[in-house]
Design goal:
CATH class: Alpha Beta
Shape: globular
Strand content: 15-25%
Number of helices: 10
Radius of gyration: 16 Å
Distance between the termini: 31 Å
CATH superfamily: Alpha/Beta hydrolase fold, catalytic domain
Low-confidence stretches: none
CATH topology: Rossmann fold
Helix content: 40-55%
CATH architecture: 3-Layer(aba) Sandwich
């Protein structure tokens, strides 16, 4: 769909259970880097198996293409505005009911956190994997990344009290031997300190789709079950 805020199109691929009528309203999982996640980590296969086996609630998933990924996902106010005021309403108005769960990996996780902070009513829960929550103490080696300052400014704002007042459930996952592990642990502490029901699942891997796939269960399984009740 074309979004005026970005002067660009945001691609959206909608996944639904095979037996779902087109007018059935279901909870919605919104996934950054969605097509790539599906291709490399079998996301919709996991969702289909879970819905069929009744260990996941019936739901839909909006797989968002990354577009200009580094620019859009690096704590970019224009992207968060586009996501929460244009893209989400266009989807939820037609197919969704109940809580919307935001999901992302790496920069995509950072972008979901940024959207949550700027638009607190947009998401009812967050599933964030290996988020690029750059923090100078741990991530000075990332200074060559073109949007390092924008990211660290936002992350500092969060740690300094910039979280929305109303907490939402949040599940984080990370590879136990990846570079982002420390900044994710720090972010979890900050969320918990503000009353968020936030948990961290660490898997014995690195910053890759294998680790993210392996952490879907139990992390995402439990979160989706929780918000569907």
């Amino acid at each position: 769909m074309q979004v005026a805020t970005l002067d660009a199109a945001v691609s959206v691929r909608l996944w639904s259970p095979e037996d779902s009528p087109r007018d059935e309203l279901l909870p919605l999982l919104v996934v950054h880097d969605g097509p790539e996640y599906d291709s490399l980590a079998s996301l919709t296969r996991y969702l289909s198996a879970g819905v069929t086996g009744h260990w996941l609630p019936r739901l839909r998933a909006a797989l968002l293409g990354p577009g200009q990924r580094n620019l859009w996902y690096s704590a970019n106010p224009r992207y968060s505005q586009a996501l929460c005021t244009s893209v989400l309403p266009a989807i939820t108005g037609r197919v969704a009911t109940g809580a919307v769960v935001g999901m992302g990996t790496s920069l995509g996780a950072l972008a979901m956190m940024h959207a949550h902070c700027r638009y607190p009513d947009a998401f009812g829960a967050l599933f964030l994997q290996s988020g690029s929550f750059f923090w100078p103490r741990y991530d000075s080696h990332e200074q060559r990344f073109p949007y390092y300052r924008e990211i660290t400014a936002f992350v500092t704002e969060v740690h300094d009290g910039g979280l929305p007042a109303t907490p939402v459930p949040a599940v984080f996952t990370s590879g136990a031997i990846e570079e982002n592990i420390d900044n994710n642990r720090l972010m979890i502490k900050t969320l918990q300190g503000r009353g968020y029901p936030a948990t961290m699942n660490e898997v014995p891997d690195m910053h890759n789709y294998t680790a993210w796939r392996d952490a879907l269960d139990p992390g995402l399984t439990e979160l989706l079950g929780r918000v569907s009740r």
